[in-house]
Amino acid sequence: MRQEHSRIRARTALLVGLLLAVGVVACGDDGSGGNGGSGASGGGTGSGAADLPAGATAIVAIVNPVVNDPHNTGVPAELGSDRGGIDVDADPGEADVTSDDGLAVVDVPTGGIDLFVGAAPALAHTVLAEGDIYDAAIGYDGSGAAFFDHTPIRYAVGQGSGAIFYDPDDDFGEIDARLTEDNVIVVLRPGTYTGSLDIRGKNVLLFGEGWSERAVIIDGSVVINGGDVRLRGLTITGNLTSNGNGFGISFSVVEGDTDIKGNGGAFLRNVFCAGASVPSSSATLLDNYGVEPTVSPPPIICD
């Protein structure tokens, strides 16, 4: 039932159509593929797949993403151009069909699974804990499939993994202070959080729920001074600056300037309204607006 709910939300989500444009224009997709329909699980989720709540255990498949020009961690030989209408099936687990912009979500149990993409042989993956969400960028050419290097990316946002949950009514200073600690997982419930964040901890995850509806807004700027920090599902109204190595961000919108000084990291499916200065080495950049070849940001989101 969670998948059906996500599909309905996705129909009204503003970013769905905008990110569909990325897939059609930059990848040459003819748009005749995905119907957002159901796989074995009975409900294709399309771009709403990114909106799985913390506590779900699932894989978000990003099939044949746009490869941004600064990407330099390799491209699978299996990378194709078709994005929509591709079956994604987890065994054990559920199934879905990719939306036109290449997204599908499959609920999975913990332990080893085989992930089948279209007609390709299975991709092996291990789900480490209940409540894990994985972003998996996949190349698929109709007969073979492969993960991009440095994916799937794990978000251990289940309560059993020690995630700490906050609401907009909670003290913002407490959230900022928590992010100075090492090895913390912070989940933000939907709403607006007013203030700027200085993330000084190492190995920090900041996860926002409700990406396609831009449900988590940081009304301020974010500065990262710790290493191996990852953000997902945020709208940042100010600037984003990272001075540490191994920084990454996914399924997020940055309305101000983005300046990433460190090396490494993964950047998946973001909108950088003012463009982005990104790492020059060991960086994975896929499906991002504001980075070549999709430099012009979507006007409705960034106005």
Description:
This protein has 303 residues and is mainly beta. It has two domains: 155 residues, no CATH class; 144 residues. It has four helices and 26 strands. The strands form five sheets. Strands 10-11-14-17-20-23-26 form a seven-stranded parallel β-sheet, with no helix packed on it. Strands 1, 4, 7, 8 and 9 form a five-stranded mixed β-sheet that branches. A five-stranded parallel β-sheet has the order 12-15-18-21-24, with no helix packed on it. A hairpin with a 3-residue loop joins strand 2 and strand 3. The longest helix has 14 residues. The N terminus is likely disordered.
Low-pLDDT residue spans: 1-49
Q: Find the structural class using helix and strand composition.
A: mainly beta
**Per DSSP, what share of the residues sits in E-state strands of 2 or more residues?**
25-35%
> What value does the average pLDDT take?
85
Task: Supply the number of structural domains.
Answer: 2
Largest sheet: 7 strands, parallel
> What is the overall shape?
globular
Radius of gyration: 18 Å
Number of strands: 26
How much helical structure, as a percent, in the residues? 10-25%
For the terminal residues, how far apart are their CA atoms? Answer: 35 Å
How many separate helices?
4
**N to C succession of SSEs:** HHEEEEEEEEEEHEEEEEEEEEEEEEEEEH
Strand order in the largest sheet: 10-11-14-17-20-23-26
